[in-house]
Amino acid sequence: KFRMPTAENLVPIRLDIQFEGQRYKDAFTWNPSDPDNEVVVFAKRTVKDLKLPAAFITQIAQSIQSQLTDFRSYEGQDMYTGEKIIPIKLDLRVNHTLIKDQFLWDLNNFESDPEEFARTLCKDLGVEDPEVGPAVAFAIREQLYEIAIQSVASARESRLSKKGRRGSDHGSASKSSGLSMDLVKLFSFKSSVVRKRKDLDIYEPMVDLLTTEEVDALEAREERHAR
């Protein structure tokens, strides 16, 4: 059944709210089992701590609740089962730190811990900014969530394909074959454990410290893109 393929079944929540000339952006995880009244408590506390206009309370609460509702809509549904080794890609800027990396993740490991992985990664790469680790963990969880949603859709398609084969003995083989190939492409990783030389650069992490001028230029570009 549907759940995040990690030890803790947490929902990645992303907020980007503009109101009355002010903007609030944030990204964090939320336990879908927590009572819904905690959402309003969190929104009120956030507005108070950041000295935002009171109107932000409703905006924040509604955005969180909407994302929680989306997550809960998948609960109880079947997920595609089988070999699921998928690539996770990082391309993040946190304050002055730019980090890029790519690695493989086992979706069948329900004891995996993105936060611990991120801490270890930052330690190995010598990243000192304490905000980078949580951002890396969130990026991993966000991608795992997307894959989990795709696995529900794949399980549904597979179920419909089987019903179609039972209902008709003609013309279903090619469709079924096509679906199987799609699932293999999406969820399987068939290759040697030894990486090819041309792939070495892809899997090599890159960390760069940006100057204040470079950060200002990037933020200005992001602001223009957002508008």
UniProtKB/TrEMBL annotation:
Gene Ontology CC terms, in alphabetical order: nuclear chromosome
Localization: Nucleus
Protein keywords: Nucleus, Transcription, Transcription regulation
Gene Ontology biological process: chromatin remodeling
InterPro entries: SNF5
Keyword Nucleus: yes
Record has Transcription regulation as a keyword: yes
Top-rank taxon: Eukaryota
Chief location: nucleus
Family: Belongs to the SNF5 family.
Name of the featured protein: Bushy growth protein
Organism for this UniProt entry: Capsella rubella
